[in-house]
């Protein structure tokens, strides 16, 4: 089920909510991970929101073809949970969208998103979030994001996000409160099987098709003048100890 949220928040002159390198990292075909994007108190409140929506039966099982997970519309919802916590996260994501536009081009003030629950044994097979098509459409997914909302996580819990470039890959742990962003068209990815229940908010920032050079199909030439540019699966962290990228 697709959800488009219409919201414009005044963010001009606001402080950066993610590391300043994020837009360039995504532009170059990398993956950006922002630790502590959702502060601990907000993370606690979001977990209350998710639990209430689950108790109200608002999660629905996704199609079984490529994934085993349950999805929830966080806006069109029963009067339960903590709307203020969800709105605070939504507001921060809109600030991220605004921050990324100088490097990645115009993106619509519509955010497509879902809460997702992966039960024990949950997974999502390898895929990309946007694809080439000749069908007319108003917009396409430009940037994919995952905000991890599980209260605690260990290596044994599984559920890593695996991102690919060719025959190389990197595994990104679903650390509580972290945010992962990447190009929706370029980055193949999958969710590895979970050994414990885990929650996240997933979504996409859309770009208008009239901002692209051809029928809403992204290409490398649209992003880079140099045909010899080498895309890499790089994970950048916003912590000084991990400031160097992990080039695979």
UniProtKB/TrEMBL annotation:
Signal peptide: 1-15
Superkingdom per UniProt: Eukaryota
Keyword Membrane annotated: no
Pfam families: 2OG-FeII_Oxy_3 (PF13640)
Transmembrane feature ranges: none
Single GO BP term: cellular response to hypoxia
Required cofactor names: L-ascorbate
Keyword tags: Dioxygenase, Iron, Metal-binding, Oxidoreductase, Signal, Vitamin C
Identification of the protein by name: Fe2OG dioxygenase domain-containing protein
């Amino acid at each position: 089920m697709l959800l488009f949220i219409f919201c414009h928040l005044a963010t001009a002159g606001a402080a950066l909510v993610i590391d300043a390198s994020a837009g360039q990292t995504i532009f170059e075909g990398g993956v950006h991970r922002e630790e502590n994007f959702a502060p601990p108190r907000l993370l606690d409140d979001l977990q209350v929101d998710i639990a209430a929506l689950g108790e109200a039966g608002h999660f629905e099982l996704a199609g079984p073809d490529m994934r085993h997970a349950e999805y929830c519309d966080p806006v069109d919802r029963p009067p339960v949970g903590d709307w203020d916590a969800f709105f605070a996260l939504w507001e921060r994501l809109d600030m991220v969208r605004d921050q990324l536009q100088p490097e990645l081009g115009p993106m619509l003030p519509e955010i497509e998103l879902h809460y997702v629950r992966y039960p024990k044994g949950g997974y999502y097979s390898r895929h990309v979030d946007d694809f080439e098509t000749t069908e007319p459409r108003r917009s396409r997914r430009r940037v994919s994001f995952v905000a991890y909302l599980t209260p605690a996580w260990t290596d044994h819990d599984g559920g890593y996000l695996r991102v690919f470039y060719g025959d190389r890959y990197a595994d990104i742990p679903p650390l509580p409160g972290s945010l992962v962003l990447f190009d929706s068209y370029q980055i193949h990815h999958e969710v590895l099987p979970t050994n414990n229940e885990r929650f996240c908010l997933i979504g996409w920032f859309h770009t208008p098709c009239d901002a692209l050079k051809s029928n809403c199909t992204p290409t490398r030439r649209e992003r880079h003048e140099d045909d010899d540019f080498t895309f890499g699966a790089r994970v950048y962290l916003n912590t000084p100890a991990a400031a160097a990228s992990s080039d695979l």
